[in-house]
Amino acid sequence: MFTGIVEEVGVVREVKELKGAKELAIGATFADAVHIDESIAVNGVCLTVVGFDDETFRVQCVDETLRKTNLGTLKENSPVNLERSLTLEKAVEGHIVQGHVDITGEVVKIDRDDADILLTIRYPEEYTNYIVGRGSVAVDGISMTIARDEGDCFVLAVIPYTWDYTNLKDKKVGDPINIEFDVFGKYIVKYLEKRGL
Predict the structure, then answer these.
(1) Residue 192: which residues within 8 A CB-CB, separation 6 or more?
(2) φ, ψ (nearest 5 deg) of residue 168
(3) How does pLDDT run across 74-85, given as a tens digit for each residue?
(4) I want to staple 148 with a disulfide (CB 3.0 to 4.6 A). Which of 16, 110, 155, 165 is the partner?
């Protein structure tokens, strides 16, 4: 479990092809403090540490994960948002994020006027019941508040700090972006659908 508060932007140091999977070596300042089997959110995807050294940790992504997320597009030197899992000593400052990406959306517009940054993301229309204005959503593992719901798009008002200290600053129109809808919203929608409401 995570909070959607990115600890740092790491850098992919190596992409190793495996049979039906990929192994990523990711540079991070906390690499020497991780342990095998630790869960780390990489662009919002919960992955398991399989190895580490003083400068990098290694995670493996199976084909299903590569298809459903933007991790399959990563190359050497790609920036990635990193968050270590929630502990009982850590405040929940964003919202509850599972690290289970629902879909990949697409960046369709970036409006930047000094400190005012609006990021518009298109997503499959069948998921519109999960988007609520002023509700929570995780994009590439970042806990965000939805500023506007625009049918098959939603708009995020990104503060300059979040822009500067995550991989959002590297996004371009057309880039894929991981989306995890609010888990409580998903349960509510499912409950209502089962009752035909």
Answers:
(1) none
(2) -60, -35
(3) 999 999 999 999
(4) 155
